[in-house]
Amino acid sequence: DVKVTQSSRYLVKRTGEKVFLECVQDMDHENMFWYRQDPGLGLRLIYFSYDVKMKEKGDIPEGYSVSREKKERFSLILESASTNQTSMYLCASSPDAASGANVLTFGAGSRLTVL
Amino acid sequence: GQNIDQPTEMTATEGAIVQINCTYQTSGFNGLFWYQQHAGEAPTFLSYNVLDGLEEKGRFSSFLSRSKGYSYLLLKELQMKDSASYLCAVRDSNYQLIWGAGTKLIIKP
Known about the structure:
heterodimer; A: 115 residues; mainly beta; three-stranded antiparallel β-sheet; 12 strands; B: 109 residues; six-stranded mixed β-sheet; 57% strand; globular
């Protein structure tokens, strides 16, 4: 019954490494999002995408990039990981942005530690 | 700036009722959401309010007052499995979600 799958639950990387976080959804949703979740803070939007090959910056895009080559897949890339990117990363998807509640469905999260 | 406030942590007893408050100041309003997040798991959708009033869904109810910038989530007949964080989020005039830091609810037997 898993609808949004994040490829890695736990990752440990070294400063300067390139990191790929993969997210796949099977609900044919148009919209996909990457958030980071840190203690004491609300979810912060990194990037989002309303369509294949489209991407929009969220509130904290610095140090990140994304790729959406297929509708079901949205990847988050850390070109050169830094210790301040140690966090829980949550992927989410939703149907058409303009209609109704537009509820987000989240993946289980990827906890990244950068040493 | 935009801001969502909710208590950091609350404790309640199994079988009791608890109310988790959320106040917001945002650029516009296009709905308020409550999500539940168990430790180490994905947030899951609980409720959506766009008009003033109370929305009831089983043991959970959510209330909204747009004029006061205020919502609450009411949980009745608390069960141990209700121990989780509860996230309040408001969709602003740009249809972007602004999230509160979440309220960790601890249920004691």
